[in-house]
Amino acid sequence: MKSYILKFSVMLISILCIGIGSEAFAKAPPVAMLIQVKGKIEYSKNGTKWKKVRRNKFLFEGYFVRTADDGSAQLINQITNMSRTVGPNTEFKIAKHGGELISGHLSKPTQAAGGLSASLNKRFAKAQRYTTVRRSINKKKKMKLSAIKEITLSAAHPDLVWQGMGSDISYNVHIDGVTHKVAPVSTNMVRFTVPTLTGGKHKYSVDLVKDGKVIYKSKKSYKINWLSGTALAKFHDGLAEVKSSAPGDDFLIANYLEEQGMNVAAMDMYRQYFAANADDIDMYPMLIKAYHDLKLKDLKKAEAVKYNMMLDSDS
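Now predict its structure.
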């Protein structure tokens, strides 16, 4: 127990004082994805330590996959969107171009239905930048607030969020000249449900208030794109396509929401997904990126520390 505590302490000091993450652990985006998983299927990062595949699984270059006599799946190439059927008693390795058969059966590539994650790779590569944890310098913080520059909302997903500034700070949210008062919170994220707006573009800003006085007035106005009518119908059509391509996959739904600019809804779905699938370390940077995009600095830092600890324990 003492040795474990010592190891943990040394690792935590290294993370906080030196900073590890994107420089040391950055990886290329996933090459492929397993869907329609049936029976016993396992994957390995090095060909020796194997883990069960229980759901849709993103695969990176160098990973191995093997199926038992009852195992089968579809292997989707992330670049070409081509699909291959994985048969029972099959083993293959993920290369840059896709799956390289070692034994068993991989069918010839055919066009996969829909674009499961057409824009994921660029965002995944960007997400790697935010996994580094740098040393904090103790200095007096300026009382100011940043918010996401542009966000898409709808009646089903109407929430704005921003960094909590302390339990003694309240907020004035201005939307198209109308002011909404938001009470203080002790958490590191403030959530405000926007009243229903007309479809299209709207301006918003957030001011800080202490003891009834505005102590920081936003110098910028940000944009809300409120979905309704034809735009909302198009959004739902795309969402239905994702759900039909990979039923029950919350990660891909979160990816689609982020793609559509619904950053708060995407964050909520990523949080839900990783709460249920804590072992999916590979894709965790996407949650960190969600916090970064929403200017939630405290949550971003906390999750980056957690991610680096998970990487260490998984190595």
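Residues 1-25 have pLDDT under 50 and may be disordered.
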